[in-house]
Amino acid sequence: MGFQTDAVHAGQKPEPLSGAITIPIYQTSTYHQEELGKHKGYEYGRTHNPTREAMEKNIATLEKGKYGIAYSSGLSSVQALMGLLKQGDHVVISNNVYGGTYRQLELNMTNYGLSFSWVDTSDLKNIEDAIKENTKMVFIETPTNPMLNLTDIKGTVEIAKKNNLISVVDNTFMSPYFQNPLILGADVVLHSTTKYINGHCDVVGGILITNNEKIHERLRYLQNAIGAVPSPFDCWLTLRSTKTLALRMKQHNENAIKIAEYLESQSYAERVIYPGLKSHPQHELAKKQMTGFGGMISVDFGTFEKAKKVLNRVKIFALAESLGGVESLICHPASMTHAAVPKEEREKIGITDSLVRFSVGIEDAEDLIADIELALK
User: Fold this and answer.
1) Is 170 an annotated catalytic residue?
2) 42 has pLDDT over 90
3) Catalytic hit among 6, 31, 42, 46
4) Is 89 annotated as catalytic?
5) CA 106 to CA 197: how far, in whole Å?
6) Catalytic residue chosen out of the listed positions 52, 195, 248, 346
7) Which of 136, 140, 10 is nearest to 65 (CA)?
8) pLDDT at position 37
9) What are the structural domains of the chain?
10) 302: alpha, beta or left, given left = phi > 0 and alpha = psi -120 to 50?
11) What's the mean per-residue pLDDT of the chain?
12) Is residue 271 among the annotated active site residues?
């Protein structure tokens, strides 16, 4: 089936009792068992829920995967990933990832005997050079948050397979509509479903998708053992949102291209970072492994004073954490999303105090450009 058909129908059948087209919200913590040891496949709400199963199947299908394992947030998905490892294991990871991922791994998981090498994975040689005898996983985010650096997924997978490593791709920025890492050979795809997949700024969630049965069994076990599962209502909202994912992503992409081109034409901005611009150093790679460029733009305005004026003066763009919603958002990564990353490390990868991140929504592009223009003036 095509993407839009799968988005509407995958994982969903008419409810058998009434024939309802929309999957019900199975708001229950437990299930009646007909007799001891005999049930209908459902025992406890943390372990199984029909609404959650429908959402997992739907998103897995969109990512060209067999198995989807949902969690209560993107970070709980990262936590579950660490359950594939054991004390003493080492991970090679992109040096520019979401700040919460850095905080969770470098400031917490190192206390449990895991170690991490934070490298610029846009250069595949850096990945190879960072591999040690105890390396078990390569974790890349592409495009990265917020610098929009790209990593060659296929090349990373080849390195991982050669060294018998688990390959993980955080695909949050692109969504399954614009990029499918499993097709390129990745073992696991990660999404913060809070972002584009849900896309309405009303749910927090995460999901891992894989085609590997052994990895699936372990992640499914961890889902139940850790208990960080999304609520039935959150699953229902997310499932409703995936029906329009293709339509939304097309509009995010169309608007972002117009805004990126406008910003690049203005002398006010020192640097505009967007994979869809020819000026992006990895524009050709973007065209090769992505079918669109997404709705995220990062802009370095040169000074904090200029950045602050833009952040405070826009009216349609909301100054807020998060991204990927139908509403346009703007944020200051250094003090918001990446505040947990030490200043010295932030500046090494380009997250300066003058950097502003735009999450371009689906409003009229002309209104968004006028909003930015007014702020610049």
Assistant:
1) yes
2) no
3) 46
4) no
5) 27
6) 195
7) 10
8) 80
9) 3-83+131-143+153-242 (3.40.640.10), 245-376 (3.90.1150.10)
10) left
11) 96
12) no
Q: Each residue of 57-113: pLDDT tens digit?
A: 999 999 999 999 999 999 999 999 999 999 999 999 999 999 999 999 999 999 999
| Active-site hit among 152, 170, 300, 371 | 170
Beta bridge partners of 205: none
Catalytic residue among 98, 102, 196, 274: 98
Give the pLDDT score at 293: 98
Assess whether pLDDT exceeds 90 at residue 183. Answer: yes
164 burial (CB, 10 Å; 0-12 / 13-18 / 19+) is: exposed
Average confidence (pLDDT) over 304-322:
96
One-character DSSP codes across 65-118: -SEEEEESSHHHHHHHHHTTS-TT-EEEEESS--HHHHHHHHTTGGGGT-EEEE
- The yes-or-no answer on residue 248 being catalytic is no
Residue 13 pLDDT > 90: no
* Separation CA 112–CA 116 (nearest Å): 12
Residue of 249, 199, 191 whose CA lies nearest to 56: 191
Contact 216, 67 (CB under 8 A): yes
